[in-house]
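step 4 of 6: structure.
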Amino acid sequence: MSRRYDSRTTIFSPEGRLYQVEYAMEAIGNAGSAIGILSKDGVVLVGEKKVTSKLLQTSSSTEKMYKIDDHVACAVAGIMSDANILINTARVQAQRYTYAYQEPMPVEQLVQSLCDTKQGYTQFGGLRPFGVSFLFAGWEKNFGFQLYMSDPSGNYGGWKAGAIGANNQAAQSILKQDYKDDITREEAVQLALKVLSKTMDSTSLTSEKIELAEVFLSPSGKVKYEVCSPEALNKLLVKFGVTQPATDTA
Amino acid sequence: MECVFGLVGKGFAIVVADTSAVHGILVHKTNEEKIMKLDSHKLIAASGEGGDRVQFSEYIHKNVALYQFRNGIPLTTSAAANFTRAELAAALRKNPYAVNILLAGYDNHTGPSLYYIDYLATLHKVDKAAFGYASYLSLSMMDTHYHAGMSLQEAIDLVDKCITEIRSRLVVAPPNFVMKIVDQHGARECAWRQSLPSASPTFC
């Protein structure tokens, strides 16, 4: 019945829905999940890799995590090629701000700016929306550590913990139960890996299937974005006892 | 013959400008305000071509205000200074503004600061600066008497020394000056130095 209202992005359906935007979110629901957790001393991002192969050059390329600027990074879920375009756009916006003001772009402004771009694709031009959701993690002197989640509609929100991609609702509800406001970065890593192990439908968890990145401050006060090496990640998985997926899913 | 100068003291920055609006040999008015409040904690003192001075100052003022409305936080003095410089630089090779600016501000974490921005989009963060013919007279005065962390009274005394030099040594010295300061409490007018009181001070 609503078929005639979903072939163009720029019109509402009679029920007031934008079908193309919703279909974009469907596409993301099939993609590898990503979880972000905000802690007192940093932001943790974990992602489920869908492309797993021993042949993959893990040291030089990441599938889920990308650095936008020295003080902001993101995790993606959805169509990778769409994500690359938006990541590049975000990087340009961040540099443009620094060019004008000689200061790092406040994280929320960067997210807002990117979301304004995404919104444009839901209102004019007749082009389909981007099939990507983001988790942005960053730090700046005004508001400290921050985590933002955005989706194809161009909506965004600031979160203490969030999940995107496959099984994100299950992940979000586990996070809601287990998150505490004064969580430390190490506890956040543990929680993120635990949640991922519960929501990933995979027989075992290894560093081949997961990516972990953290945004934190070095002792000298500089913002650091570090992707965990596969060796270190394997050690963490063993340490937290999540190499086997949990038998009961919440 | 426009005179604009300023310096940074202990917890404040002070900028001084003459208040004559001159057109050729005619003085339109002697209480023209050339120091604009850019936001609660910033002052922009501009000297140069009449129309450009007001146009450019107001343009920067509106952009600074827009940033605050959009983002809920004010720009730092450094960001505002760099933004101003970038606007001058962008226009420079197309449609230049003939305006020299001293931007003074106070930021909570970094304290007071003063930026020298000339019409060619040169930007320097400085402790003391001056534009125009005043610079020949007041820079050397400030070089002699300035030291870091001056109290407000010491700074005002130094400003008065500079004004005295300008009045005695500049052939067509402007009669009146205004001083404005910015500190943790905000930007405000500090004092006037008038050797020629305006006929009707409440108007123009």
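step 5 of 6: annotate
 - The first helix of chain B runs from residue 50 to 71.
 - The longest strand of chain B covers residues 99-107.
step 6 of 6: archive
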